[in-house]
Model the fold of this input.
Amino acid sequence: GKPEDEAHKGRSASLVGRIAEAIHADRPVTLYDVQAARDFVHVDDAVDAAMLAGEADPIRCRGLLNVGTGKASRFEDLTTAVAAALGKTPIINYAPLPEALAPRYQ
Done:
């Protein structure tokens, strides 16, 4: 989708959507933790995993379903990749983590 597809969600928009929106508008992307990384999974892959789990034997396969690639990507690398996909160079601002976010930051 286009960056504006997520714009109405505000702070609840996906990280990729927020990064894409900022880069598309030539605004800086603020990163709080240079080393922060997550295992990003494309939604199609997550759906495929859920569908496969739904077909599994419910007696032998139950509980939580963790879906991931097994590889964490840094937010900085994600920002650079999104910018490259948009044909742009990102403007990245590095800032200290705001105290209000610290209790919820993983």
